Amino acid sequence: MNTVLFLIIGIPLIEIYLFIKIGSQIGAFNTVLLILTTAVAGVTYARYEGFNTLRSGINQLVKNELPIYEIVSGATLAFAALLLIFPGFATDLIGILLIIPFTRKIILQKFYNKKNYNNKRKKNYIDGDYEDISDENEK
Hints:
By secondary structure, the protein is mainly α. It is 81% helix and 0% strand.
């Protein structure tokens, strides 16, 4: 609860501070223009990367593999596009880091480990044989 409250109050304060600092350096009009440019360019690039992720996921399905990374990557791209639409420099920086494939892979490696998923999946069943003995007892 404290973390959510901190984020709700902290992120707008950081954004306002950055607006004031950057606006005083480059001017109000250039600040607004920069915010709009990052939003348009970021959403356009997120769309491009989203189609690449979709294509990679389809290739994984054709190979009869689960496209786990592609699903997580697609959700990350949607979140990054949302961050880029929100006005602000801090959210734009986080959104850009999530859109770039190299940095997105580094960030997602902290949360995603394909080897652990496959090991858990393999241990999810018990292999065995059975023999129907009810027919022998009835005779």
